[in-house]
Specification:
The protein has helices at about 1-25, 30-55, 65-85, 90-100, 110-115, 125-145, 155-160, 165-180, 185-195, 195-210, 220-245, 250-260, 270-275, 280-305. By secondary structure, it is mainly α. The chain has one domain: Na+/H+ antiporter like fold.
Length: about 300
């Protein structure tokens, strides 16, 4: 329980600072946009590169990751199906699906893994899965749908290859797979820049909260409530069923996959929504509500399965 509360406390403080900055107007009218651009184009690619360049890619071949991948695909699939039927549009459906299944495995998942699961490396499989497969695929959809660069179809087909987040992830995977060691004089500056990603995203998120309507009441009420329900209840439930009934996991392994699936939507999803100017309120409200809802869920999971 200590890990759950401490992880949320850190996030809440930084978001609160962002809210105060927004209220005071300390960064000007473009402050949020500058932080979002900094995170998307510079800091996040650097963070993904340094994370993946040192990662053990063999962890992706495990039953735990299969549970995570299948539960993620299940809840995202439900959101996509509903979104298509309700004609919410490609951009809103893509961002909403991410909010329904993309967990905060970094700045929240790591401290919770340390205090609840006893090993920070246990979030590595879901982190790699999201960075290597989910993020590039989702951003490619947004790019190809016309949310990214405009132009002929052939030009848009090449856009994902120039996406800074995708490039940072791919470069990190290539370095890890090759077994090369990046010299410290090269890696250290990249790591320093990457350290700005999480605080920049959280501050931008906090600034966006100032002046915003109460979550779950605007035009995005239905997709917000659907994504939050799928993220907070659907994904951990599906993970538990798959882990027990299909893969036969129990004990610590079962606790691991259910806890990681119960993590809230990641704050960097708001960065992506802001970058593509689509579903910004949907992402902001979904992240906020799923973060609040995940507190009792994570405490309950740790109490029952721990």
């Amino acid at each position: 329980m200590q890990g759950v509360l401490s992880g949320f406390a850190v996030i809440a403080v930084v978001i609160g600072v962002g809210y105060v900055l927004g209220r005071l107007g300390s960064l000007g009218e473009q402050g949020r946009d500058v932080l979002t651009a900094l995170a998307f184009h510079v800091a996040t690619p650097a963070l993904l590169f340094t994370t993946l360049a040192r990662a053990d890619l063999s962890v992706i071949f495990s039953s735990r990751l299969l549970v995570t991948a299948l539960s993620t695909a299940a809840v995202m699939g439900v959101f996509v199906a509903v979104g298509v039927l309700r004609r919410w549009g490609v951009g809103r459906v893509t961002i909403g699906a991410l909010c329904a299944g993309y967990v905060n495995s970094g700045n929240l998942g790591i401290p919770i893994a340390v205090y609840v699961l006893g090993d920070a490396s246990l979030v590595a499989p879901v982190m790699l899965f999201q960075l290597v497969l989910v993020t590039p695929a989702a951003l490619a959809v947004l790019d190809l749908s016309g949310r990214g660069e405009k132009g002929p179809l052939w030009q848009r087909l090449l856009t994902p290859l120039r996406n800074p987040v995708a490039v940072g992830s791919l470069a990190g995977v290539l370095v890890s797979a090759s077994g090369l060691t990046v010299p410290a004089p090269v890696m250290d500056p990249i790591k320093l820049i990457g350290n700005m990603s999480v605080p920049a995203s959280l501050l931008a998120f906090g600034i966006s909260l100032y002046g915003s309507a109460a979550p779950g009441r605007g035009r995005d009420r239905v997709p917000v409530l659907l994504s939050v329900s799928l993220k907070s209840a659907g994904q951990p439930l599906v993970a538990w069923v798959l882990a027990r009934a299909v893969f036969g996991l129990h004990g610590a392994a079962l606790l691991d996959v259910v806890v990681t699936s119960a993590l809230p939507a990641a704050q960097n999803l708001f960065t992506y929504a802001s970058r593509y100017r689509v579903a910004e309120s949907l992402s902001r409200e979904s992240i906020l509500l799923s973060t609040v809802a995940s507190v009792p869920v994570l405490v309950g999971v740790a109490a029952v399965l721990g």
